[in-house]
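Sample 3 of the quickstart, ligand pyridoxal-5'-phosphate:
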Amino acid sequence: MVPSVNSIPILDLTQQYATIEAEVSDVVLRVLASGGYIGGSQVLEFEQQFAAYIGVSNCVVCNSGTDALVLALRALEIGPGDEVITTPFTFFATAEVVSAVGAKPIFVDIDAQTFNLDIAQVETAIADKTKAIIPVHLFGQPVDMTALMAIAQAHQLAVIEDCAQATGALWAEQKVGSIGHIGCFSFYPTKNLGACGDGGAVTTNNQAIAAKMRILRSHGEKSHYHHEEIGLNSRLDALQAAILQIKLRYLDTWNEKRRAIAARYHKLLSHIPGIITPQEVAGGQGVWNQYTIRIQRSETGNYRDQLRQMLQERGVGSMVYYPRPLHLQPVYKDLGYHLGQFPVAEQACYEVLSLPMFPELSIEQQEQVIYCLKDCLTN
Ligand SMILES: *Cc1c(COP(=O)(O)O)cnc(C)c1O
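Result:
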């Protein structure tokens, strides 16, 4: 008999909204009444606050994390004939943008413990056409930026950090997004700092690159109706900027709660046979956008998928981020990669399972997740 529980979603945005509802509805109504919906003080203030939070001199907001990556590549003039090294174990957008600007994504395998780019393998992939590296701080766990920047500097490559899942994470006491040449952030609602809609930002200490990204995000116009580039229409609207200003003030508290939840999961899960828990690496402080375990069992078929189904029947939500590595995506078949080429990433796709993780997840709910997980594993 399956024990009955109140269902526990992998993510619940309504609880967080309830804690800031008064503040948010107040500012939303003020923006609506103001008649200024695009640009304006809310957007400029948020750019300043976010730059200060990340610890850089420039922030340029835009429509999404995907556009943030496009703006970064375009500002660095990366395009046809160029290669960009990145990870095959990430959300599709990371590689998609490289293709979108006409360049070629070059994948290298990941590290089994962190799920992030295997830095040692990055160097072997560098060729004459390589222009940049896009490390992804996956699930909120920072990449070893000290090692990566050393390689990038030695080969004079640009580093574009994909910080979509890692707003607030630290590497060597510095916020991710302030260490590479450009940091790219997403404010998609499920990210650590999520808007009530789409949004994104780029951060950089390079004034010229920031100026270029500002021009590119607004139809390539340097001054009104004077177009110097083929750009994008990529804006963050005033409502989202106003909401993000409020949420930014809570981000550190929410990230602390995620860290406490991750620590508790670790304590409760790390001794269960067949489960491998994620661990923070020395030098980094993660922000746990996802808490992702590996399920290793010798049953025939994919036991992880079976387990996910059993958890679902017990009311516990979970997700597979990501079931298929990017080098094996149908759209990239012409790049010539094959199964077995990046065994660590491929194994991760087969074994990973992300458990409920959001700042408001209660201790009781977490214990319920563990109880159900154990119940599944012994059935
Ligand atoms: C969410 C995400 C993106 C894209 O962000 P959007 O705001 O959805 O466009 C890019 N890279 C990674 C790793 C992401 O998780």
